[in-house]
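Q: My labmate handed me this sequence with no annotations at all. I'd like to see what the chain might look like in three dimensions before we decide whether it's worth expressing. Could you predict it?
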Amino acid sequence: MYLETINNKEMLQPELKLRRDKIRALMAQRDIDAALITCNVNLIYTYGRVVSGYLYLPLNAPAHLFIKRPNNIEGEHIHPIRKPEQLPDLLKECGLPIPAKLMLEGDELPFTEHNRLAACFPETEVVSCGTALIRQARSVKTAIELEMFRRSEIAHAKAYDQIPSVYRPGMTDRELCIEIERLMRLEGCLGIFRVFGQSMEIFMGSLLSGDNAAAPSPYDFALGGEGMDPSLPGSVNGAPLQEGQSVMVDMGGNFYGYMGDMSRVFSIGKLPENAYAAHQTCLEIQEAVAAMAKPGTVCEDLYNTAIDIVTKAGFADYFMGVGQKAKFIGHGIGLEINEMPVLAPRMRQELEPGMVFALEPKIVLPNVGPVGIENSWAVTSDGLDKLTLCKEEIIEL
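A: Here is what I predict for the chain of 397 residues:
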């Protein structure tokens, strides 16, 4: 359904209008007359692709695209532009009034760009709530977006199923990671992995084995990893894969622009018995949270359920890290890997049908490595639908 839609402009327009209208409904609640959208992720959401330019979204009129690059896009409500200072005159030429209240993407635009855009409308009240408001709209997916996730995760699982075939004894974690990245790309993964936040960075995901999984990270990830260089401190560090170590593969499934999330655990030979017990605890957390989650469930309550289970099982000291722990068990996914909702303490947001999130209970055992599970889930009218379907037990390489 989605592939056919994105390849057919006439079919795509109703989907884009639906997304824009979700934003408009939130704008109306704040008496915002128009939004000026220019960041890549939000342009994908509202226009269907990345361009260099500005999508002008009036509250009560069709959207207009003012485009700098590429120069081969034409159509109704599409206008060439060289600089933002032209916007007021172009709006007048289109028969659109200058907005009394204009919304910008305040949490994403560089300071100078934000001020430049605001200065183009000296008589307008400019508000900077665009990032939070659009992220709120994006947190509940449309039917086409959900179909996109389902098709993506089929390809994601197909790549993961092939992981044992590319392992060779004597490999380093980096060498295995490269082979898995190749599998992902061959199945259609786009490679780029979008993350929200100026100081958040990641490549295609991570592979963590042994004690590298306990290396603290500057990023707000569940687990870190030392990385190959201080300029990108995450994932593999080049260490040899050794007998008795676990290997957690956490590659992002970006096949159609949306970030699916799935982790699976492999082992080099047999692991100690407590590793299998810890992994089973994570599966039990997943089962309990999935059974509890439905529209209206509070995110914090899901987090507390996980903490209760892992504490009773005796693995609380190793849950979501060792020395530095992640204070969440799940996060929304979409055009970025870290969207709303977040399953964490003090997060009183309630689940809604159409939300999609990754649930990732993980335990790091010293001298062994990480165990646990991560799957992507869609919130339905009465519960959850698992999107990532492949083996969940620890697979020996």
